[in-house]
Amino acid sequence: MQTIDCVVAGAGVVGLAIARALALSGREVVVIEKADAIGTVTSSRNSEVIHAGLYYAPGSLKARLCVEGRRLLYAYCAEHNIGHRPAGKLIVASDPG
């Protein structure tokens, strides 16, 4: 009988990232998914934007994690030759004060 250390529910971007981290730490992992294919539920309905932390209080944990996550994701894509397209953003002031 085979034993599994971890079961991850959901084969979207977050579930697969968690499964990968667990597997890299030496655990036996099984990913279960309710859909017929990976990345077709919530992951297919997000904005597909890598957030840079602009919408959170400067220096807050959420802002710092967005910046670090962005850096890590771009580095991972470059290291593994994963195509991606960085896009810019224009933010304008709506209040002079």
Can you walk through the features of this model?
The structure is a single chain. Helix 1 links the parallel strand 1 and strand 2. This protein has two domains: 46 residues, no CATH class; 47 residues, no CATH class. By secondary structure, the protein is of the alpha+beta class. It starts with 5 loop residues before the first strand and ends in an 18-residue tail after the last helix. Helix content is 32%, strand content 8%. The radius of gyration is 17 Å and the shape is elongated.
What would a concise description of this structure say?
With 97 residues, the protein is an alpha+beta fold. The protein has helices spanning 13-24, 61-79; strands at 6-9, 29-32.
Overall structural class, as computed from helix and strand content, comes to alpha+beta
Q: Could you give the count of β-strands?
A: 2
Tell me the count of domains.
Answer: 2
Largest sheet: 2 strands, parallel
Indicate the overall shape.
elongated
- What average pLDDT do the residues reach? 89
Low-confidence stretches: none
**Rg for CA atoms:** 17 Å
Element order, helices and strands? EHEH
Strand content: 5-15%
Please give the count of helices.
2
Sheet with most strands: strand arrangement: 1-2
The end-to-end span amounts to: 67 Å
Summarize the amount of helix as a percent range: 25-40%
